[in-house]
Fold each of these.
Amino acid sequence: MNIILLGPPGCGKGTQAKLLERERNLQQISTGDMLRQEVADGTELGQQAQKFMSAGQLVADEVMIGMIQNRLQRGDLGSGFILDGFPRTVEQAQGLGAMLGELDLTVDKVLYLKVPKEMVVERLLKRAEIEGRADDNQETIEKRMEVYLQQTIPVVEWYQQQSLLLELDGGKAIDEVSAKIRDSL
Ligand code: AMP
């Protein structure tokens, strides 16, 4: 089973992806985690990406599509994958579709965790205190939300048109959301 998790920053994509990974032997593929690893390793890609990440902007589509292509080609996907944080633009979604076609894979479900903006800000500021992520500050959060509305909502609509989308209330407690996800799969 191959799943995409969509939703605004702080909607719980990472948390739910980790739960699914354990319960269903799926591989979580988090582009945010992959980029943070590149930054921590001080790679050329990491240095380039960091500028965009700390400004709350998106890293270029070609870079992200290349990163996912490498990961998918490596195989080792257990019983399937959970994409968390990708695709974030329609161009990335199209790139993903082409890659999956070549690998003879399909997306089975797109789970959209919907959360109101005020809750996003509140959750991310709380996460800043706990995890100390550099991009969880008020200014960058606002920018990430704006980028999300402009570039990622069209991805939600794109999958809706393909009848793959399942909308869930990401504002609920972690257990409630994961129970809903379990029921839906
Ligand atoms: P995340 O941990 O998913 O919130 O990602 C943190 C940051 O990494 C984002 O604000 C972007 O700057 C960058 N990023 C992660 N995934 C993508 C993607 N699919 N496309 C472009 N930029 C991304």
Amino acid sequence: MTQTLPVTPQHPEPAAIQHAAAILQSGGLVAFPTETVYGLGANALDPAAVAKIFAAKGRPSEDPLIVHLASANDLPRVARDIPPLVNALAAAFWPGPLTLILPRQPVIPHAVTAGLETVAVRVPGHPVALALIAAAGVPVAAPSANRFGHTSPTTAAHVLHDLAGRVDVVLDGGPTTLGVESTVLDLSTTPARILRPGGVTREQLEALLGPVAVQTKHEKHEAGLPAPGLLEKHYAPRAALWLFSGEAALDRMQTHLTEFLAAGGKVGVLCADEEAPAFAQPGACVFRLGSSILLEEIARNLYAGMRALDAAGVEVMLCRDFGESGLGLALRDRLTKAATRVID
Ligand code: TXA
Ligand code: MG
């Protein structure tokens, strides 16, 4: 049985937090909001509890988890050989959507790191997540709270859709504000390398660090494991997703939409508000993601849009690329991994 507890996002009720923290302490699973997406948390120091995360998600054990802390002061508990650079990164971006890959402390079990000698760590920027982790008094291992390979959850309803009966408690703190996952940054190389683009942009990191590399699709990281999200396919809706890029993207989307509708297909479109009128054909399911010049709106609504079109029963959803500046890079990464076909 999964219990859902509503909490006020900015001022979570202590009773709900205490109840959820006690479940973490006793080896249970708690789904909770972060600023990016909902996480599926367990006590990171308890291998049996961590094993429940993999079972609940249907996630392969080779895919390591992010450890969440309530404060950067706790970092030495989970990571060692911390480069001085981390102080500046933590001061600039924590609490927030930046995950750092650092050498692990032995106390972090292999179940969390998938046998790697490194651990992924972040301090999430959400009052509910921070209160929960602080009350539990332990680092909290948490992947996104979706079934493996599926679209990440940005509401408690999304979590329940995927994991009802597989998680003890869901703290419902409303929709997440950022909507895409954290940026995963590897500091063991020079220059530092983005393994997964996310909420902290490449430009923001470069303003602090100078040039930063971005791992391309075909590279592997040191341990020889697939880079984050490389386990195809990822972030994916149930329906096929066709991703359009390049100058003619919108024209091509219109053409394909017309063809699908003419053939009697059930089609969805994920587009910016300004673009919606161009897709207003009878029978088309159009989901507006927000203003095309505010990528934070597009990011906030992308996963909800995929899930809404799935719920509407479309066979295929059409979406365009949003460039590579700012959050565009994270959007491109998720859309490419979710896509069944890329047209450019
Ligand atoms: O925003 C987020 O990061 C969310 C919220 C819940 O914090 N979490 C999240 O977790 O997206 P997950 O498990 O869905 O993605 C974690 C990513 C994976 O791609 C994993 O491969 C990578 O982080 N990762 C974890 N540990 C790593 C390590 N030691 N070295 C390289 N990559 C690692
Ligand atoms: Mg995930």
